[in-house]
């Protein structure tokens, strides 16, 4: 064996990737598992995007690109930001990487010093606190309970900021809660941020396109002129265009930070896949109808899963405004007895549901909110129907 660094020994594996592995193992043993842990669209990349990728490959698009990403893609991203988000950027304020995840990682690596603080509203995406810690900084978790619609309030933000705060990271629409910060929510948060100019803001807008019922995600950069110089907008192709495996994410932000991220990419991965970048141009400039079609499908599934979960006594599921997850409150079930004794935590409930019902769900604890579960509805209505029925039956057996 070769000795590992302290920082890597302290790093937790990604809970969602671990769950995926567990499900795969159980399936390999021949067990039928209804899987609600998926963090990605179950649909395939739209045909026109695949065609663009294939013809790029055939046309010799097989070489390194610049570390910022192809100019044409950065131009297409600027057009997208102007069109969809009402924000103005030039290609030198854009960087392309192997997913939004790499962007978040490099942005923190580029800015954090040991002891710096990053404000993370909970429930949060599993990777944020670990990426922050890996870069020597301290995650400051702010609870955003169902009573506030799982949204960060101005009061909670104000209370979390200290002289050491470097970043606030906000994921809207949220994985795992589905909460969306709209215009009015950001306007209230910006009032607080204006009193604390030392705090930069990272907005992870990866689920931006997956919103329901006329709800609209908002980029704070579009609301106040002072925000552009302190915000990093993070987005990517994974969720909107069902392109998780292509690994294309991007950021828009102040040129000095973008340059620093480009430098890190230049010394780590060089660039992300060339032909995937070309396909991403087609995704951004081409027909956007596949997104609307996917959102219509997600909406139907959302309504089904919310209503089936709410029919289970002891489970309360709020209706998410965006993304493809529900985050039901299961606290009333804790303390009930199962075959192996009391179920006291959401983690124990997850194990029970897997063993008893053959249903795989994520625990709220991994997302910084114990007493909740996360279920992805990026899965078929048949799975949702049988899964929720099986969950209800397993829960009914608890005493
Ligand atoms: N941010 C959030 C909130 C996510 O849920 C995910 C993926 O699950 C990502 C970022 C990563 O996206 P990408 O595939 O672009 O790295």
UniProtKB/TrEMBL annotation:
<dbReference type="GO" id="GO:0004069">
    <property type="term" value="F:L-aspartate:2-oxoglutarate aminotransferase activity"/>
</dbReference>
<dbReference type="InterPro" id="IPR004838">
    <property type="entry name" value="NHTrfase_class1_PyrdxlP-BS"/>
</dbReference>
<comment type="subunit">
    <text>Homodimer.</text>
</comment>
<keyword id="KW-0032">Aminotransferase</keyword>
<keyword id="KW-0808">Transferase</keyword>
<protein>
    <recommendedName>
        <fullName>Aminotransferase</fullName>
        <ecNumber>2.6.1.-</ecNumber>
    </recommendedName>
</protein>
<dbReference type="Pfam" id="PF00155">
    <property type="entry name" value="Aminotran_1_2"/>
</dbReference>
<dbReference type="InterPro" id="IPR015422">
    <property type="entry name" value="PyrdxlP-dep_Trfase_small"/>
</dbReference>
<dbReference type="InterPro" id="IPR004839">
    <property type="entry name" value="Aminotransferase_I/II_large"/>
</dbReference>
<keyword id="KW-0663">Pyridoxal phosphate</keyword>
<dbReference type="InterPro" id="IPR015421">
    <property type="entry name" value="PyrdxlP-dep_Trfase_major"/>
</dbReference>
<feature type="domain" description="Aminotransferase class I/classII large">
    <location>
        <begin position="32"/>
        <end position="391"/>
    </location>
</feature>
<comment type="similarity">
    <text>Belongs to the class-I pyridoxal-phosphate-dependent aminotransferase family.</text>
</comment>
<dbReference type="InterPro" id="IPR050596">
    <property type="entry name" value="AspAT/PAT-like"/>
</dbReference>
<dbReference type="GO" id="GO:0030170">
    <property type="term" value="F:pyridoxal phosphate binding"/>
</dbReference>
<dbReference type="InterPro" id="IPR015424">
    <property type="entry name" value="PyrdxlP-dep_Trfase"/>
</dbReference>
<dbReference type="GO" id="GO:0006520">
    <property type="term" value="P:amino acid metabolic process"/>
</dbReference>
